[in-house]
Design goal:
Layout (H helix, E strand, L loop, with lengths): L4 H8 L9 E5 L7 E2 L9 H6 L10 E4 L4 H15 L5 H18 L5 H13 L8 H26 L11 E6 L2 E5 L1
Antiparallel strand pairs: 1-2, 1-3, 4-5
Amino acid sequence: MGTPLSGLVYGVGGGPLADRSVHSVWPGASNAPLNADQLDTPLSFEGFDRAGSGLGSGGMVVYDQTACVADIGRAMSGFLAHESCGQCPPCQLGTTALASSFASFCDGTADQYTLEEMSARMQQVTDSNRCGLGAGQQGVVAGVLARFADELEAHIVNGCLTDRRVQVPKLVELTESGFVLEG
């Protein structure tokens, strides 16, 4: 605890390929992503809180500049929408709508209204929630809008500039010796 995030990314993880650079670090599926300017963030609950994110359980996904932030948002938000139990309508409806909004950037149907709608929906997704899933979705969307809005706006004008898609593995079977993933 306390080691800079760069120590994890470059020291433990080996960093990106030689011709690439770190674009974003996603501390799990339910925390705001950090951008490359935040690699000095200490690996601690307090450090990530000061950076406007959360350490969560300590799992990190690091993307280089060839990954599409809208597609990463689609994958993370889609995971959270799938995991919503449906007991709290603001969460179930909100997480699904936010995942669809991210998908609209990927398929070229997003417009300026999509950004405004995401900002408004993100404020409501936590209303009357019984768990932290809605707050996680709010963190993901808030982080993307705060740190990568320019990339989403570029999607509206130019479409996606990469064909690299982010896959979220699906757990299909749990066995005594481990688990089986699809995707």
